[in-house]
Amino acid sequence: MTQSEGEAPAEPPVSAREYSRPPVSSKEYDMASKDGLDPEFRARLEVFEDRLRQVGIKVKLVCGCRSIQEQNRLYSLGRTRPGRKVTNARGGYSWHNFGLAADYAFVVGGQLTWRGPWSVFGRIARECGLEWGGDWKKFPDRPHVQWRKGMTLARLRRGDSAGA
Ligand SMILES: [Zn+2]
Q: At the topology level of CATH, where does 27-148 sit?
């Protein structure tokens, strides 16, 4: 928190978890959109992106809402299907499945990259009331932000509506 925001802060190496994500040139990243995200979460993301822009950090959304079938397909990779493990969550166990999570990459010189000022990204996410995956002790996931909306995944799986 002491470094000034203009300089590239010293960042810890990108974790194995992040290396297991598809390359940043992946086509699915180009198609990522905020469609299907919770409207209030979406509004929070707009504020978050604006605040990042204000400190000179450009990001691109690379994953928004994910269907339960798509989550199960991803979960099967490295388990029942060939490939590397890309997620620890099966269908219905990710905030992405309920439109309450988003993943970002940095844009540097027009290219997407996983390398960038993650600590600033995380601090601004927290300031915007978002939970940052980089704060997770067990499986840190720095590209990931989510908003629980006062809900639990168990309630969302049961189909309870958010709020109240
Ligand atoms: Zn995510």
A: Muramoyl-pentapeptide Carboxypeptidase; domain 2 (3.30.1380)
Distance between CA 120 and CA 117 in Å, rounded? 6
Rounded Cα–Cα distance for residues 20 and 23 (Å): 8
Whole-number Å distance, alpha carbon 149 to ligand 1 midpoint, is 16
CA 14 vs CA 53, 75, 113, 143: distances in Å: 22, 21, 11, 11
If you measure from the C-alpha of residue 93 to the centroid of ligand 1, how many angstroms do you get, rounded to a whole number?
12
Q: What residue segments make up the domains of the chain, in order of their start?
A: 27-148
Cα-to-centroid distance, 94 and ligand 1 (Å): 8
Summarised one tens digit per residue, pLDDT across range 140-161 is: 889 999 999 999 999 999 987 6
pLDDT digits (tens, 9 = 90+) for 52-75: 999 999 999 999 989 999 999 989
Interval between CA 101 and ligand 1 midpoint (Å): 6
pTM of the complete model: 0.81
90 CA distance to ligand 1 middle (Å)? 13
Tell me the CA–centroid distance for residue 8 and ligand 1, in Å: 24
Element (H, E) at 69: helix 68-76
